[in-house]
């Protein structure tokens, strides 16, 4: 899942409805779209709370245009990622609540029988725009049908201060884990430390901890969904992160997804994993100090570990509608409208590239090359593994992620509250509670 080729794209593109031509993807045929919203439809949409105000403003503007075009009334609400997860589960269990949720990762795989079949939406978008990234298809499909439509990923890249990196003796950002550790150690020595969330941060903590586990060959489960996290490869990852943790700013054990943003823009950090929001907020800030920090920033993909391939975990956003909705056709029409390239592109520009697209055809958006600092975020889903790797997505994979099993394992080993061996054994027992039910 860390890369893709022409065969992958044609497979994900629904029967070869697209071909590659030059650097882009040229659609040949779009699936017919015959859906018509129910009369007098009204839907409630719950999505993730914004980190970039312009992104949400454009999303709300596009929603208003949808209502004006179709007559469908939309009540738009926003909650944090952490708050959406339990509300999504409650809605599935009680059969009431939002008609449509735009949440994270494989949460819809916890309750697929409660969700609207959106295969027709996926077929339409996939055939019109040349196919989905394979990892996007993994998140959207259950069996032969689609239960969710990937919106993209709040792409995570390494955010770093260029001047501090150079002062630490590096002219360019390290591309492997060994060089990455040396950089962090040098930054710590210069009192310009790194900092990575080790609290229950849905995007940031899961992102870098899963990366570290996979980079050294560890994984929660194998292809048969057997728990294999207590392994020599996992121990190697834990030993590595224990060394990294020694270079971090104090307090990361309790960080959520907003703490590193604040610390970076306060000048307390030189290196962290984050979306493009730190740079965007900094460069548009009225605070001269934050503007200077943004000018001194750049972004890089996560380093390659001993396994020799990209092993990134990204906070993939997914839209899913509930069968309890009185207006399922309106739900599908809303998704189709918001994902149509013209609307998606305008939203992407407003967000300054905050969401890495799920369809490679969307990579031609000028925002990705408008500034070289944005470009690394374009290909996040190309470098991404799904969080159920190497097994299946479903209740167990979602529960392990939602319970922060991997994050807690790294936090215990890094902080010294458990040895790497103890932390791995405890993580295995926790994972088995979900995979062996």
Describe the fold and architecture:
With 437 residues, the chain is an alpha/beta fold. It has 2 domains: 6-154 and 315-385, 3-Layer(aba) Sandwich (D-Maltodextrin-Binding Protein, domain 2), CATH 3.40.190; 157-313 and 403-435, D-Maltodextrin-Binding Protein, domain 2 (3-Layer(aba) Sandwich), CATH 3.40.190. The chain is built from 17 helices and 14 strands. A hairpin with a 2-residue loop joins strand 1 and strand 2. Helix 8 packs across helix 9 (232-245) and helix 11 crosses helix 12. Residues 1-28 have low confidence and may be disordered.
Task: Provide a short characterization of the protein structure.
The protein is an alpha/beta fold and 437 residues long.
């Amino acid at each position: 899942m860390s890369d893709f080729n022409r065969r992958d794209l044609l497979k994900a593109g629904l029967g070869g409805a697209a071909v590659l031509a030059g650097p882009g993807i040229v659609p040949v045929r779009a699936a017919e779209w015959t859906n018509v919203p129910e009369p007098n439809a009204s839907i409630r949409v719950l999505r993730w709370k914004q980190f970039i105000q312009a992104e949400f403003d454009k999303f709300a503007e596009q929603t208003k245009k949808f209502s004006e075009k179709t007559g469908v009334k939309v009540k738009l609400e926003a909650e944090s990622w952490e708050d959406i997860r339990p509300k999504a589960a409650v809605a599935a269990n009680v059969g009431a609540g939002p008609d449509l949720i735009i949440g994270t990762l494989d949460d819809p795989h916890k309750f697929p029988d409660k969700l609207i079949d959106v295969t027709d939406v996926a077929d339409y978008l996939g055939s019109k725009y040349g196919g989905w990234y394979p990892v996007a298809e993994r998140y959207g499909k259950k069996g032969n049908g689609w239960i969710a439509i990937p919106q993209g990923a709040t792409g995570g890249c390494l955010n770093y201060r260029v001047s501090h990196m150079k002062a630490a003796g590096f002219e360019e950002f390290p591309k492997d884990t060994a060089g990455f550790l040396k950089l962090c150690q040098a930054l710590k020595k210069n009192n310009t430390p790194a900092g990575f969330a080790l609290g229950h941060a849905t995007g940031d903590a899961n992102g870098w901890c899963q990366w570290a586990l996979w980079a050294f060959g560890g994984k929660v489960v194998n292809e048969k969904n057997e728990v294999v996290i207590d392994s020599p490869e996992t121990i190697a990852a834990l030993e590595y992160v224990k060394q990294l943790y020694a270079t971090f700013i104090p307090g990361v054990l309790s960080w959520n997804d907003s703490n590193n943003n604040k610390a970076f823009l306060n000048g307390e950090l030189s290196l962290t994993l984050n979306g493009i929001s730190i740079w965007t907020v900094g460069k548009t800030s009225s605070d001269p100090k934050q503007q200077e920090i943004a000018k001194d920033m750049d972004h890089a993909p996560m380093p390659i570990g001993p396994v020799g391939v990209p092993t990134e975990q990204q906070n993939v956003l997914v839209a899913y509608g509930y069968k309890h909705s009185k207006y399922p056709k309106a739900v599908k029409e809303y998704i189709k409208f918001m994902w149509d390239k013209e609307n998606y592109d305008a939203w992407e520009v407003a967000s300054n590239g905050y969401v890495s697209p799920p369809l490679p055809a969307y990579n031609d958006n000028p925002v990705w090359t408008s500034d070289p600092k944005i470009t690394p975020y374009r290909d996040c889903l190309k470098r991404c593994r799904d969080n159920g790797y190497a097994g299946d997505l479903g209740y167990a994979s979602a529960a392990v992620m939602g319970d922060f099993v991997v994050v807690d394992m790294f936090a215990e080993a890094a902080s010294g509250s458990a040895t790497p061996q103890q932390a791995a054994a405890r993580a295995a027992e926790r994972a088995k509670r979900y995979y062996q039910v």
